[in-house]
């Protein structure tokens, strides 16, 4: 039996464990329509299960008809310990003020972009024009020296790509028996972290699909804890992320980053608090810039006050102040305070996930089952055995981290592609046309793509 046929058989058997509704042809099929988006992708599909997953894990991710509703009584979130009432316990809030490694590409000879797919060319042109605002790492595992690199060690804003840290921390807690995936979570508990109009409807869309699949049950309504990471990774719900953030704890999330050796990483802070502090305006941003410790405390205080989860029982005073900031204000706060890390660190992380380097195999499968939902798309199956993905978006920021196993490669390919400080018109246009995602997919799919892009970036001069 051929390798490709074997993988397709494995995937078909696993997919049979879940009810798979019709899905778009690509993971970027539904463009976003508003700012402060956590991801350029919101796809409506049941969670695809990673190769090698057990039937139990397939049920954990799949249709509700496979498993009866849990009988465990829902329990509210415990209050955070007093020492965790801030971000940046072990990591800095802000990255060092350093320049990217490459701010100007060399001009050597002449190259053309004809080899680049037309849909991806705007991303490459921007990379050539503004190399200091792009982080890129792409290589086949085991052939890192043949990869393409642009500012691989410089920390850029992550947007929702940081949610990979929450996923890995969650999977470890489940593996250690600290969390039960079958534990019911009241929707009211999740909704306390939802800020309307802040996530391109990622949270309500995720809940709508869970209801359609019969995975919302009980009175009052609840979901399984296992569905919360799915809401975070597949739909990019900020509310689901912040729920897990508080459940897992700031200290543990930062410890995960340190244990992974991600030396470029700044502290992750709840998305809810980040958005709420934007209502303070530009003047407050400058003050926070000079006093990052104050920001570290205020962003957590705002999160807990709004959600009602602070230990002191503070009233939800932030609710009356919550409003959607201007795009320019969002961009300022995202530039100054959004969690940052390098493309190199996230490429290495995706490689670790792709090659099952997280403890027992059950833990690896659990991580991959939440990331590999794009494998269900028929267009991906034509070229790839499996595909893992997380994207992110904030005003002026578009990020993505991928791993994939092409049929014609011995080992997986990883891509981390971070665009930063995009002009407002470019950002809005790219949210519709997604040339950044097209570039990343080309690097994953095409055997010669990495070497071709390396030649273009090395040549510097180009014809449009």
Structural account:
Strand 9 (397-406) and strand 10 (413-419) form a beta hairpin. The chain has helices at 3-15, 55-61, 121-129, 163-175, 187-191, 202-212, 227-233, 238-248, 250-259, 271-278, 281-290, 292-307, 327-337, 343-354, 361-371, 378-381, 424-433, 435-445, 449-459, and strands at residues 111-112, 134-140, 148-150, 156-157, 184-186, 222-224, 340-341, 384-394, 397-406, 413-419, 462-463. The strands form 4 sheets. The protein has a 5-stranded antiparallel beta sheet, sandwiched between helices. It is α+β, with helices and mostly antiparallel strands and 464 residues long. Helix 4 (163-175) crosses helix 8. The chain is globular. It has 19 helices and 11 strands.
How is the secondary structure organized here?
Layout: H1 3-15, H2 55-61, E1 111-112, H3 121-129, E2 134-140, E3 148-150, E4 156-157, H4 163-175, E5 184-186, H5 187-191, H6 202-212, E6 222-224, H7 227-233, H8 238-248, H9 250-259, H10 271-278, H11 281-290, H12 292-307, H13 327-337, E7 340-341, H14 343-354, H15 361-371, H16 378-381, E8 384-394, E9 397-406, E10 413-419, H17 424-433, H18 435-445, H19 449-459, E11 462-463
Parallel strand pairs: 1-11
Antiparallel strand pairs: 2-3, 2-10, 4-7, 5-6, 8-9, 9-10
Helix pairs in contact: 4-8, 4-9, 4-15, 7-8, 10-12, 10-13, 11-12, 11-13
């Amino acid at each position: 039996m051929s390798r490709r046929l074997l993988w397709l058989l494995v995937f078909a058997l696993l997919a049979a464990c879940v009810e798979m509704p019709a899905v778009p042809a690509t993971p970027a099929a539904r463009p976003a329509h508003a700012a402060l988006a956590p991801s350029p992708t919101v796809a409506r599909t049941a969670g695809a299960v990673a190769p090698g997953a057990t039937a139990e894990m397939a049920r954990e991710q799949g249709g509700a008809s496979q498993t009866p509703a849990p009988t465990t009584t829902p329990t509210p979130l415990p209050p955070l310990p007093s020492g965790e009432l801030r971000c940046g316990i072990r990591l800095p809030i802000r990255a060092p003020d350093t320049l990217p490694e490459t701010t100007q590409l060399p001009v050597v000879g002449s190259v053309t972009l004809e080899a680049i797919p037309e849909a991806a060319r705007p991303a490459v042109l921007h990379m050539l024009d503004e190399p200091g605002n792009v982080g890129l790492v792409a290589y086949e595992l085991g052939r890192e020296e043949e990869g393409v690199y642009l500012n691989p060690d410089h920390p850029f804003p992550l947007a929702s790509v940081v949610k990979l840290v929450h996923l890995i921390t969650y999977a470890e807690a489940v593996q250690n028996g600290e969390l039960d995936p079958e534990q019911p979570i009241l929707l009211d508990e999740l909704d306390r972290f939802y800020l309307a109009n802040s996530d391109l409807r990622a949270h309500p869309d995720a809940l709508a699909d869970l209801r359609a699949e019969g995975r919302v049950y009980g009175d009052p309504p609840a979901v399984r804890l296992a569905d919360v990471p799915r809401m975070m990774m597949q739909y990019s719900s900020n509310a689901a992320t912040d729920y897990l953030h508080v459940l897992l704890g700031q200290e543990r999330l930062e410890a995960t980053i340190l244990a992974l050796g991600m030396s470029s990483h700044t502290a992750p802070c709840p998305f809810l608090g980040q958005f709420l502090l934007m209502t303070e305006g530009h003047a407050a941003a400058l003050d926070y810039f000079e006093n990052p410790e104050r920001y570290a405390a205020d962003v957590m205080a705002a999160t807990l006050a709004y959600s009602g989860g602070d230990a002191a029982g503070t009233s939800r005073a932030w609710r009356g102040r919550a409003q959607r900031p201007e795009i320019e204000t969002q961009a300022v706060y995202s530039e100054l305070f959004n969690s940052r890390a390098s493309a190199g660190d996230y490429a290495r992380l995706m490689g670790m996930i792709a090659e099952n380097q997280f403890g027992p195999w059950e833990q690896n499968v659990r991580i991959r089952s939440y990331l590999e939902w794009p494998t269900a798309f028929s267009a991906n199956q034509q070229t790839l055995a499996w595909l893992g993905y997380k994207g992110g978006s904030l005003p002026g920021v578009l990020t993505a981290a991928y791993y994939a196993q092409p049929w014609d490669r011995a080992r997986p390919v990883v891509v981390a592609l971070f665009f930063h400080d995009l002009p407002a018109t470019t950002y809005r246009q790219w949210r519709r046309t997604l040339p950044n995602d097209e570039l990343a997919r080309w690097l994953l799919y095409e055997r010669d793509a990495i070497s071709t892009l390396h030649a273009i970036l090395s040549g510097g001069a180009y014809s449009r």
